Amino acid sequence: MHALSIYKLFACQKIKAIVEFFVSVKIVIKENKIFLSVDVDPVWLARWATGSVNSLWPDCESCFSDLYGGTSPPDTLSEPIDKILRLFDELNFKSTFFFTGYIAELFPNLVKKIAAEGHEIGCHNYEHLDYEYESREKFRNDLEKSKKLLETLLGKEVIGYRSPNSSVPKSIVEDLLEFGIKYDSSVTPTRRIMGKFGDFTNAPQRPYHSKKENIGKEGDSDLVELPWAVFPLLKLPAGSGITHRIFGNVYNNLALNSSLKKGHTAYYFHPYEITQVEEMKKMHLPLKAKIFLQNCGDRYFQMLSIFLRKHQSRLVNGEGLYELVKATTS
Ligand SMILES: [Zn+2]
Q1: Per-residue confidence band for 33, with pLDDT thresholds at 50, 70 and 90
Q2: Which domains occur in the chain, in start order?
């Protein structure tokens, strides 16, 4: 080979190696994770349906009577959960499923089945209440009851917690740690909207160790907080199936991309969001409930599938991200 050709070949390879190096650095920088989880709530646990002072029904029993004509609910979870598990199989991903103790008591085999497929089970407290308005004693008793119940079913420790409705008392860090919780994912660093979201507007928009006195502030406690994604500038809630369905793909992508630039972020959804919620559609619902149920069913499953496939390499479950954060902060 001519000497000049050899030189050109060598130079090309050098340039190629340099380009590959910078691309790989860029990928590492961009590879912040998305903590993907499922809150295993039937639609009747939504805040507007039961469990808050302004809900449609005062309690679950009166809701079951109206919706199903009985004193207990049918299993509306197994079918969408199966669909979710198959999607996660396709993505080769093991997620975190947060259960309330109440749902775990109703459907214990569902908890065991999900765990048997290698997914993490997290604690969603016992009832689906706004715990920031409940007494500390009620919070502690329900947390202990629910965690023990799940651990008995699983035969292993539960380390992750998410408060229902993201309604979390600020001073619960020591309580969570006392009961063996290692990470929490309840904080939404957004504006408080319609009485929802726990007033954590200025909380960090990336994982952090919580301050002992305030779960929304960074500190040196052992509790790791994994906050949800936020829509930029306006600080609106994002990173959930609810905001994704109601505000659409553009809103969701803007929020996730912006949050990923700040660090690891979180996205979660519910099994009822990928079903048609036919029983609800037959009812005369208030406007807020109709808005809340927008795009549930096949439409959302399609939106979700496209979104998750796009971010497949970033997906991580709660215990995975907890370990990652611990390894980089200790
Ligand atoms: Zn929930």
Answers
A1: very high
A2: 42-329 (3.20.20.370)
**How far is the centre of ligand 1, averaged over its atoms, from the C-alpha of 48 (Å)?**
12
Q: Measured in angstroms, how far is the CA atom of residue 23 from the centroid of ligand 1?
A: 40
Strand ranges in the chain using DSSP code E only, listed in sequence order: 34-39, 96-99, 120-123, 160-161, 183-184, 208-211, 214-218, 224-225, 230-231, 236-237, 265-269, 315-316
pLDDT at 287: 85
> Ligand 1 center to residue 13 CA distance, Å?
54
DSSP conformation letters of 196-210 = BS-S-TTS-SS-EEE
How far does the centroid of ligand 1 lie from the alpha carbon of residue 201, in Å? Answer: 20
Q: Is the pLDDT of residue 74 over 70?
A: yes
- Distance (Å, whole) CA 44 – CA 257: 32
> With 60 as the cut, is the pLDDT of residue 83 above it?
yes
Instruction: Give the predicted TM-score (pTM) of the model.
Output: 0.89
CA distance 128 to 7: 70
